[in-house]
Design goal:
By secondary structure, the chain is an alpha/beta fold. It has a domain at 3-145 and 175-204 and 251-261: Rossmann fold (3-Layer(aba) Sandwich), CATH 3.40.50. The chain contains 12 helices and 8 strands. Strands 1, 2, 3, 4, 5, 6, 7 and 8 form an 8-stranded mixed β-sheet that branches. The longest helix is centred in the last third of the chain and has 16 residues, at 226-241.
């Protein structure tokens, strides 16, 4: 198992926290997905990496049926409970190894999971599973740093430095609107066409407990040695509770990619 595979498998250990801590996606994103994916009522969708169902429910509520392929058994069980009574099937397997009927789906999509998949397999397999004219879609919810972002995220780097986790890359990171999309990669696969890209931004305030719960669902924090993680979280908590409103403001962004399956 590679280091990437090790990190990919960590999320299952945070299943109980994941549902409450991870952000929901903007409703506008799902409206755009339905439009750009040319979805019709009763279309059959495949979701890769549904986790606890945060990107599943909005599409079920819009009248589609969904098959979810989730790597983690505990995440899958939580999703089953969250989505009881809705037209969804949840199967536990790595997407790269999971098999189903070719051309069985109108949309194959992944929310914050596409980048974990094997690049040599993901486009080929999505293409095979889609019907002619079906669509591929993916996006992630990532930390955004627009002008005026909370200075907490500059100041807290001292705590990461103390445990040997030094910041990589430029600081501050590029603004959300300057972050490149993956349209060129999709086109380079030769398997998809008519690539559409849309961007979204939102923000949320977190108490110390809420922010530490969020960090506890991130693979790089889960993988920390326990003493290092405890030290880091103590310092994060101290800094947040000493702020005037005892909260931190985190911005998020998502880049939605939608592309039609090429006939080849």
């Amino acid at each position: 198992m590679s280091a990437s595979d090790d990190l990919r498998s960590t999320f299952d250990s945070a299943a109980d926290l994941y549902d409450g801590a991870r952000p929901s996606y903007p409703e506008e994103l799902f409206d755009d997905l339905v439009e750009l994916g040319e979805l019709e009522p009763d279309d059959r969708l495949l979701e890769i990496g549904c986790a606890t169902g945060k990107a599943t429910r909005p599409l079920l509520e819009r009248g589609f049926s969904v098959v979810c392929v989730e790597l983690g058994a505990q995440l899958a069980e939580r999703a089953r409970r969250n989505l009881t009574g809705l037209p969804v099937e949840i199967r536990v397997a790595p997407f790269e190894q999971w098999e189903d009927e070719a051309g069985a789906f109108d949309l194959v999509y992944a929310a914050t999971a596409w980048h974990w998949l094997d690049p040599a397999i993901r486009y080929l397999k999505a293409h095979r599973l889609l019907r002619a004219g079906g669509h591929l879609a993916f996006w992630s919810a990532l930390h955004a740093f627009p002008p005026g972002f909370d200075p907490f995220f500059t100041e807290i780097q001292e705590a990461y430095d103390r445990i040997g986790k030094h910041r990589q890359g430029e600081w501050p990171p590029p603004r959300p609107e300057d972050i490149p999309d993956d349209a060129a990669e999709i086109e380079a696969s030769g398997l998809f066409e008519d690539v559409r890209v849309r961007r979204y931004g939102w923000e949320r305030l977190y108490t110390a407990d809420e922010y530490i719960a969020l960090l506890s669902t991130f693979s790089d924090h889960i993988a920390l040695e326990s003493k290092m993680r405890e030290q880091l979280f103590r310092e994060i908590r101290r800094r947040i509770v000493e702020r005037p409103d005892r909260r931190v403001r985190r911005h998020w962004y998502a880049i939605l990619h939608v592309a039609r399956r090429s006939p080849s």
